[in-house]
Amino acid sequence: MFTLKQMQVLEKVAQTGSLNGAAIALGYGMPTISHHLRSLEQECQSKLIERSSRGTRLTLAGEVVLREAKVMLARAESLEKQLAKLREADSISLRIGTFASIGSKLVPYTMRELAAQYRVRVELTEAETSEILQQLADGNIDVGLVCDYDSDPLQLDSTKVHAVELFSEPFQVLVGAGTALAQKREVDFAELLEEPWIMSRVPDEVSDRVLIRSCAQYGATPRRLVATDDLGMIHALVSSGQGISLTTRAAFEGYNGVRLLPIKQRLGNRRVWFVRNKQESAAAALSCETLMSDYVKQRKFQQL
After folding, report:
1. Which of the chain's termini has less CB crowding within 10 Å, N or C?
2. What pTM does this model have?
3. CA 101 → CA 63, 198, 234, 241, distances in Å?
4. InterPro entries per the record (predicted)?
């Protein structure tokens, strides 16, 4: 019985003009190449190659077998592609949009649990709330994690978007553990007006809107040190005493070298929402909502 490996070996011998060339092309050892050729010649009951000082060439019988080998190999490749498409169609694709600070807490757990329940392929998009909502509206993601704050709630079309509040937590100021501010139990916002602030690269990001509004109440604008959403960069700058950041506890829970200070004046709460299109009814998307809600309850995010 002919095998695909035998056909591959014969094709590579013809292409490279030598057994050694075929061995290199296929990643086989010379004994393996010789074995497959001998077996093929035995099946065909014909000599298929001739070797000389000028190289290796196929015999007339070898040419006939090669023509059929190419057809067999092409059909085998086509079959593999068709099967791959079927396997892909049989799996579930779930596209999740998330902002970094909370996505890093909720998404890894959710992906692991989804994989245990479904044959799912998750695609992640990291963006800020306005970008995630636009991608949801455009159909580029299936579900998302977004945030707002209680004094300026999200304006969502309830006929199109299903939204569930996962948790809410107050805004606090992140300061370096070795700074003078870190010695306080709470801080008056007026004391922060001259501090260098680390702000978002996205102009309408929630914490920036809260910061700008709070400064405006004192007739001031934030003194911006840098615009970044890279949590590692924010942590490095704050821990080294270069700047401060308006954030929430869930975003920086477990980070060393920094401290979160309550602010005397209530700046409001950041609320985190799970959103999906109301038309989205895939089991994985519905399970995603349940998993995230349960995880939040287990971790008691509301009490952070």
Report:
1. N
2. 0.67
3. 63, 15, 11, 21
4. LysR_HTH_N, LysR_subst-bd, WH-like_DNA-bd_sf, WH_DNA-bd_sf
CATH code of 99's domain: 3.40.190.10
Would you state the structure tokens that stand for residue 104, as one six-digit string? 């890093």
Residue range of the domain that includes 224: 168-269
Domain stops at, among 76, 107, 128: 76
Q: Tens digit of pLDDT for each residue in 162-199?
A: 999 999 999 999 999 999 999 999 999 999 999 999 99
Tokens 């299109």 belong to 277
> In total, how many domains does the chain have?
3
- 3-state secondary structure at position 70: helix
Residue type, 242: Q
- Residue in the structure block whose two tokens are 């602030």: 197
Residue 269 and residue 149 in contact, taking contact as beta carbons nearer than 8 Å:
yes
**Of 89, 87, 91, 92, nearest in space to 286 by CA:** 92
